[in-house]
Queue: 4 jobs
Job 1
Amino acid sequence: VEPLTVTRSVTIATDLDQVWGALATTGGLAGWLGGAFELDPDPGVNVGLDPGLTAGAVGWFTDDRRRRVVVREVRPGARLAFTWWPEGDADAASSVVVELTTDDGDATRVAVTETLDPAAARGGRVALLADATVADLGHGWSGRLEALAERLSPVPAWA
Amino acid sequence: VIRPSARERSADAVFGALADPTRRQVLRLVTASGDDGITATELVADLAVSRQAVVKHLQALAAAGLAAAERRGREQRYRATPGPLGDAVAWLVDAGAAWDARLDRLKRHVEQRPSRPT
């Protein structure tokens, strides 16, 4: 099956840093993607705090449907890549790459490519889910271990 | 702003083919004919257009991948072929429209914000 690709781009009359700042945060993504975007919390440590948009972060995006999102790459000012799939349907995973470029500093071109590759999605499903699991575990255990460490040593050892 | 991919161009062909109301009616009748298919002559009986016009519509639908012609004896019969193309086109249309709206939202949001002091 041939992969399906949608490519769209727009030129914005604003410098690249401002465009990146507006699009590549959790709140920014929610705003321009047009839905609710929430990264999985980092239990024990960052409760209530935005864990931040970094490679390996896992979250949920909800507009007319709920989608699992795995952030693949965050190259500040240049590139944001993520993979997402409708809840419970990892076979329908598609990858999204958002790239920013500028020619003169006054305008920024934002190009989006979304690729749905049914063969790759099936083949890559294990890898995708493994990524999500590793990231979930990473969040979970870093938080739990730090919380445990705090409980075990209420008085800092170097005090 | 828009750089269509090859599959999007095929989606455009589908939309082009379906832009005409008579052609949509032809496709409905072809679809209703099921696996047996239908001939241009049979379609003329249901439509207020000439046989020549019906043949043209059928050829446009076939070119867009929405119908397939099959020769049986002296008859050319047409069947609808919506299956996988339909799914692909639906995905391309939905994803394309969603990104159009998102990039438009991003552009409006960023360009409306006051510039940072330098």
Job 2
Amino acid sequence: MMDFCSDPDQSEEKTMSPTSDTRQLLRQMMTIRRAEEKVIHFATDHEGLIRGHYHVYIGQEASGVGTCASIDSGDYVFTTHRNHGHVIARGGELGPVLAEIIGRTGGYNRGRGGTFHVIAPHLGILQTSGVVGGCLPLAAGAAFSIKKLGKDRVSLVFFGDGVLEEGAFYETINMAALWKLPVVFVCENNGVAHHLRRGGPCQSSSLAARHLTDITEAFSIPSMIVDGCDLEAVRSTLTAAIPEVRRGAGPIFIETRITRWPGNAGLSPILIGGDYELDWAFSPVTAPRELQDWVEHSDPIALFIRASGMTRHEVEAIDSDVRKAVEEAARFALASPAPEPEAALEHVFA
Amino acid sequence: VGKVDVSILSADRLLRWPIGGDSLNGVERSRAFEERVIDLCHRKLLGGFVDIDIGKEGVAVCIAITLREDDYLYGTARSHGHFLARGTGPNLLMAELADKDTYHCRHLMAAGRRLMSATGSVGGTIPLALGTAFLAREQGAVVAVFFRDGACNAGSFHECLNGGLGPQIAAQVQDIALKGSTDSTLVCSESGHRSRPCRRARDLKTPSCQTPSGSLPPNSG
């Protein structure tokens, strides 16, 4: 485990600031996309490299990058089983991230965490959890410490829509609202048809309520729905809302509506048509048939590129840099040894 | 099968219910029973902590007489009145309270009358009621579960309302501000009028109503 007492403010790595430019935002999304492709290659091309199940963040990049662009380096972040993208969006280095995913000692948790627990306290990422809703009470606890210590921070927690079935969710939002804790609840609702992303009735298959936000509004929590495939929408919504949380007005709830990447339809992620081609972003009809609708309406990277007016040359330059960085990180991860069985009890602190 | 006529829970219906005859006897019997319990406690003939029902006898009686014999009922830590209203003999009930070997004031049960369980844990019987509702749905019966406003902050309340999809389970919230009891204005995050448990239930598509309360004298214990 990393040192939990380290102050994120003292970290050498600075996460991106709200003024980061378009190129930097695209670079971050591309980095997540290419790193996740590498993770899928790790799983499919090398038997036993990733033990057990894993989850990739492809298709959700705008939600994570837009959200992390709207908070400060000292803020706390809690995330889920689908955490790789959040850690990279927060400024995580690719080498230690990939090494952790395949359980190597070069990883952020020396290979003890694996894909479910890419925890990086020096980035303010205090915990991830594979338990549905498992991080929500922890995020409220961190927010309680912020309030008690009088710090100018927020505690942000990512989770999926399934969490609204969990009792822990209700107990957490009630206490966060009652005690006006600085929590930013970011619900990544990642199974929404593209025409419903900007709003409208969108019932979850596992929740009786008509809207997820009906629930949080009943607890007097300001609640917003935002198109989670639109990076600027995510960033501007959160950038406008978070200062109030920081000032002590209490928690907010944001539902980022995301359309599922077709490669995530099955039990394990599949790279339909191989690695992502930049041609697809500029001309969706060139994508494999199963991906065309998603690339046209729901791929956050394609939507961002088309909206930004960036040239093919500019995008290629960024992608080329990103691919090099990912390859280098993959080499680092693969060269890093697995922990020795005799070392299993090292770093145990409780 | 199992579809509940939620109008049985409407406030108007409860208020219009003729309070007299058997109902009045039920209220009076419950009050007299609890006064006797207090008396025995003061004389140290009953041990432990005892929650009494004084002040809300009417709710128990009205709910009990709207239920059929084959309906199920779950109680709370404060359930003597629920049991009496459902027809449990006061002698048996008092015997249970007084039995020092198996003293279970908060865990009364009379399965023969479909009084399934009472509990001291906040919201503890709500999941049990939901489970029973699966059976009741097959039988064309309903399940009534009593709980108090504090239970509306327990995760299990929300999980059950979500799982129960409202109409399959008849829930009665006793949102009564009792002295010495939890006041929902202190533990619920919503601001405004005191209909918060109902608002939360409504958002989980559970038909809800609030019955006036507080006109009865406050509980002293």
Job 3
Amino acid sequence: VTERPSTPFPRTLPARFWRSPAALSRSFEEEVLLAAPGREAIDRLSGTAAAVWELLDVPRTLPDVVAALGHSYGADSATIARDVDGLVDDLLARGWLEEVIDNDV
Amino acid sequence: MSELVRFGELLRHVATFGLPGATLAPQAPVAPDGEWDAVLASISADHLTGLAVAALEAGALQVTEEALEDLLARHRAAMVAALGLERTLLELTTAFEDQGLDYVVLKGPAVAHTGYPDPSWRPFNDLDILVRTGDWRPALGLLANLGLRRRLPEPRPGFDERFGKAATHVTPDGQEIDLHRTLAEGPFGLWIDPNELFDHVTTFRLGGRRLPRLDDSALLAHACVHAVLGQSQPLLYELRDIAQVLAVGRVDWELIARWAEQWRLAVVLEHAFALTGKALGMQLPHEAQEALAMRLPRFERRVLEAYTTPKRYRGAVAMSTIGAIRGVWHKAAYIRALLLPGEEFLSSRAGNGHRSSYLLRWRTPIRWLTRR
């Protein structure tokens, strides 16, 4: 009888996010313009939203994003985390960001 | 230094920003007093807003707060237009693929996303798509079915496939889409083998897809053809495209040398490199000089003059085309299409509310004959 190898407990990794590959974008002078096929509107990000977009050219967790912004802006992490949570939710809902499935990268 | 020289210097400074190998002064000339509106208009017309904004971000250009706001507003508008065109490109190319039509994306988006460090450096205001001559009619039909309107009908049936370069289409939103059969009008367009271009294709990423574009060698050849033959004087962004591909592209110089000879492009390439080197202060790679180390034929030189001198606007390209078309019957068909185009072409050419008549159309050839 061959013994089955034991299955390790699944590790819960923090969610990582990045830009949707389908998004068409242009970045300049601290602003970002976003468009996608089938969508009439072009969205414009500025300030923190544009900074979050720039950071998410590679997959990152929210704590990574908060840390990077805290480093750049020198602001209180709790306040930044609240802003980033809301922003990422909004950008996910609009389809500009995606949660990374491990096979994606 | 005169105001005019400073004006030109400033534009060239912007046009060379971030260009490897450019040798212009690192210090930006200052915009002449009270001339910013004119400078900005030229920057916009020359598609240089992206380079100007990038130069500002890098501290290589200084302008007043008010001028900065003007520049950003213009660049924002240019980027909104480019994104709108990319959205249309993704929709159109999906339709081409669904119909099984081979295509290649030319110029604008293809160059912006591959040649430049950031696509925002290279605005564009239309799309250019190359199809095989054999797919020309199905591609025209597809664009019509998608609601695009051809701006100018062909002069006579079959003219496009035999002598035409491209057909400009307009979307219901007013975006301009050029469907290309070859890369240039007139003699050089006839000498280029457009089908061979499909053997020199690679891809670029856009919106999560990979779209076909010309490889760097063909991209360079097209950039030169467009800059030199597209109008009598090239715009700075067209020369920057050439310089950019020369600086970062992987060019097969043996292939370029072959095209220079077989497609009779040597004079075009030589002229394009000379203009680029002069305007952007760029040293040409020695491979470019070697590839063109041939005696430039006098006939092609004369043909080039038809494109690059004021004779262009007096029908010289059409006259040269007659000389370049092989066979009496083909020449006759070309002349007939020019002199006796269909009624639909004639009225479109005349424009809304203007008279259309053969006599008006014959003014130019009559002038040629009466001068002799």
Job 4
Amino acid sequence: MGIPYDGPVPGEGAVGKHDVQQGTLALMILRTIEVLGPLHGYGIARRIEETSRHQLTLNYGTLYPALLKLEQEGAIKAEWGQSENNRRAKFYGLTAAGRRRLAREAQEWQRTTDLMAVFLAPWEEAR
Amino acid sequence: MRRIRALLARIAGLRASRRAEREMAEELEAHLEMVVAENLRRGLSPAEARRQALLASGGLTQAAEAVRAQRGLPWVQNVGADLRYAVRALRHGPAFTAVVVLTLALGIGANTAIFSVVRAVLLKPLPNHDGDRLMYLRQSADGPARASLEFSVPEIHDLREGAPSLAGIAELSPWFATLQTNDGARRLDLGLVTGNYFDVMGLTPILGRLTGPEDDGLGAPPVAVLTRDAWVQYFGADSSLVGHQIRLDGRPVTVIGVVESAPLYPVRADAFLNMVFSAHHVSATMIQGRTHRMTEVVARLAPGAGLAEARAQVATVYARMLTAHPDAYDPAAHYRISVVPFQEALGERARLTLWLLMGAAAFALVITIASVANLTLMRGIRREHELVVRVALGAGTGRLRRLLLAENLLLALAGGAAGVLLAMAGLPLLTALAARYSPRAGEIRLDRVVLGFAFAVSAAVAVLHSFLTSLPTEGTVGSVSSGGRRVGVRLPARRLQRVLVVLQVAVSVMLLAGAGLLTRTLVRLADVDTGLSTEEILSIPLPLLDPTKLSPATDLANKSLYHTLQRELRTLPGVVDVGLGSTMPLRNSAIDFDLKAEGRPPAPGAAIPQADLRTASPEFFHAAGIPLLAGRVFGDGDGPGAERVVVVNRTLADQLFPGEDPLGHRIAFTGDVLRFTPFSGDWRTIVGVVGDTRDGGPDAPRRLVVFAPFDQEFAWLGGFVIRSEADAGRLVAPATKIVRRLAPTVPLENVLTVAEVKDQSVAPQRLNARLVSWFALLAALIAAVGIAGVLAFSVSVRTGEIGIRMTLGADRARVRRMILREGGGLLAIGLGLGTIGALAAGRIIRGLLFGVTPTDPVTLGGVALVMTAIGIAACWVPAARAARIDPAITLRS
């Protein structure tokens, strides 16, 4: 029974070794743009994959809705420009609001991870 | 802030521009090209580079769909599409749509209509200010005429002193007067009230002012507050009336205001006057007579006081009253008092009937829902293929559920809207019904709450039905590839169908049983022997007494006019006899007294008997068709000044003189009340015994009646009984003409034949029986359609199987039997459950029955027979269709 089809199922988020945790993708995108300056979707995806040492793979269905959402929320701004190989591409840059949001969320995230690290650390170290 | 901004952006995105689409496509394509370029750099062939890039993308179409979903509000966009699709799907199946809408319209309409009555009569808060703090006080005692005794002024005085938790205690004494108008006279029902009445009732004027403390007392001029209805109906809503005088019983009374519309209880009134209007109400007898009970009492809970507290205080005061005045409260009659919230008192008479109807309507709704559920299930099974295809094409389960919901919402709302129209059509009938039970019938409206109720029921029906159709899950996707018709139907769906059919049959049986019991009640009531030997009798009550002119001279004048009229009426063609008396046949008496028999003191502890006092002329008994059982009726010798004689009814004779001949014995009225009346407590000799008549309705208890000669008593009431050769109704016009000519200022009302009086007395029961019968008939019909539908469906999915059976040698009769057995089983279970339900529910409606027990075997047997007949008829059609199946055709297709 069943139609043989083992491709990605739409709407299931990133496919790869690790799923992108809910809420972390926006932070990754913002940080990537902050470091590298205005960047197109391909560049952002490449950079996130490389930074994660290829533990994360972003498909378009995950990346572009996330970019659109950030744009709608006013954290980033899109502009058409020329890519390295002279293609027309859409470049995403941080807005002032985006910069503030990144700073705030990065700090929160840091606090959370520090806290979780203490909790999850081996017993001797925690002492 | 961020959320709002994003939401606004998405709302803007609803109008997805072509540019946005183009840019998205370009952006995705650019991304892909960059990956391809990267792959090429890594040395892959162009074809392979592109293939790898596409694989890694996760699907460009899906990505585009995900971006679109983020761009706008997909839910909103889908609703429009869902609705459009639903309309198309419903138009595609007009028969299904029509049946469902009609069925729901009947169910929802019935419930909406009955609910509007329940709400207005029982549930809606009173229009009175703080209506929930308004109380009605009731004094009662054992005995047919003493369920509500009213209060005397000394009693009310005691209550005022002893119950501080009742902030205001107001008096309302029912009275009446004749209003003189330019074109004749009209009897007005009055309430004589204390100045605080409107304050206690929490009512405000719509014109002028209401009574106040300044209107109490002997010195105050008589004033009137009109009810809104009377003001509109009798005075043409003339706003200049306030401050002017009207003439009541010939006396000028100043109209001071018009009060807002509000339910009046326990008596209706056209106008409220201060006590000073009636000389009697301010007389010493009224003020000082403890047993002179002719005042109703309403009260308002004091701020901070509770009902329990008020009840306790009133009970304490009352107990003290009983001890202090043993002569006024016959211990054997168990005098008692109760404090009833006004709203509850208003609904007392209507409650049982209305809940019965609401229950019947709710049952009818259950049946309609079950029936529509069955239709939906069948349609769902037929549509399974379509739904599977939609899932395969990418529709999520949630999306499909929404689609079904949209369809069902459309259906249910259409049904609900049609139902509201039906309810509107039925409202006048229901208002007429409710008016017999409740003074709040005028408030029945399809208001916001009732419409909200109809909407809520419709929406609930829609949601319920949307979850009935099971959606294809992953496992069923495979059936798309098979492409063919599915042979079997999932078992749970079929089982649910059967359960629903059984439910329909059971509920129908219960409704039919209720209808049967109420109809038999009606028949029994109509069959009750009235005690009159003929129904060709016209009664003309004619109150000549003017309460402001109580004197022997006016009494004589009135009697003389009565006799003149009697003689004139006798001359009409077709008249057999004309009787003159105080009380018309089958009507209740206005006056009753305690009674004693000479030489027979009542047994200690036994209640003192009460007897109605009526007057009658010698011709009265023959004219009214009341049979003489023993002795004689009155004769010309029983005039004023002659020995006091009486004729008694059989109930009195049996109760006071059991096993004896009552003739020649002497009886007398007694009790404290007698001294407030013009009637004597002298001994009266029984000269005749007449048959009992069913006064006050066929189910009213029998009462003791004493007839005194019309000419020997004060003529406080009077009227004519005209016995006709045939068709008494024919006499209405000529008789009315005579009365109008000789007594032009006397209001003439209730000129009715005995048949009409009798008919009126069973009107409430007839309406009950008729309404419940309609519900039951509706339910049985819907149940029949339900059985037929389920069996027909069963036959259609089993066509192949039946074909195989027939090929293997089953003949048509056998196939028919097989289907009939399937339906018969459902029918039998439904009948069994329904009968059990009817037995249980019968106990609840016992109070509405007369002459039948709730477990009446004739009714229940008849219901079972009717339901079986309907059921078998419903099974026959699909069974016959199954028998017509041609195996050759079936197997080949």
